[in-house]
Amino acid sequence: MQVVILKDAAEVAAYGADIFTTQLKRKANSVLGLATGSTPVALYQELIKRNQANEISFAEVTSFNLDEYLGLDGSHPQSYRYFMQQQLFDHIDIKKNNTHVPPGDAKNPITACGEYEARIKAAGGIDVQLLGIGRNGHIGFNEPSSGLTSRTRVKTLTKATIDDNARFFKADEYQPHLSITMGIGTILDANKVVLLATGENKAEAVAAMVEGPLTAACPASALQLHRDAVIVIDEAAASKLKDIEFYKHIENENQKLLDYLASL
Ligand code: PGA
Asked: Where are the domains of the chain?
């Protein structure tokens, strides 16, 4: 795991946007794994800016989102399809047909999960997968106790997640308790994963993910198995890590190596 500790949420968003920019410049027809939630919004704003300035293009990109509420169709304002349209897709040159979000309105949600996996495979697999982390250590809607090799499936949300996401729903609005989510195995298949976390309320989950044991009790700890996982966090989200100075030291050394390689 590469642990990158930055000053604040703005730096985290810019660092994340740089990773996607580099990827798109290297491979115009990249397959991107995308995420919802509050954390990626600033990164998406940065990508929109760079797209509108013609620095990067999404014209050949295919995208797959991590998860969706079961029972909401894409026109529902709380659906993750709606979120993606509002926060990113409607503002960039991506082709809507190339964007995929698990179908929350699937007639048969079980077969829809297998179809989602097949679409990812047919696209050639995910090049870079963006992730957030829940306070309970979830990635996507893979809640604690999720199988570490799980695939896309229907998952029940924990009370903690339902409570955390209640802020997006009106008091009298139906809030789903079920989801379709990529599995942890699906996420681990991505060539690269980039997890962003900011704020003090993520500090415990971040410490469990990076320094805790590999355990289904903290689904994000599965990223310890990934060959190219970049954890980009601000000082507040890093505050419960034991080895902060070591991670910063590694980043300094990495930078020196990159500078040397660039000078060759
Ligand atoms: P947040 O959600 O970005 O809204 O904190 C992250 C997550 O639950 O994965």
From this structure: 9-198+212-233
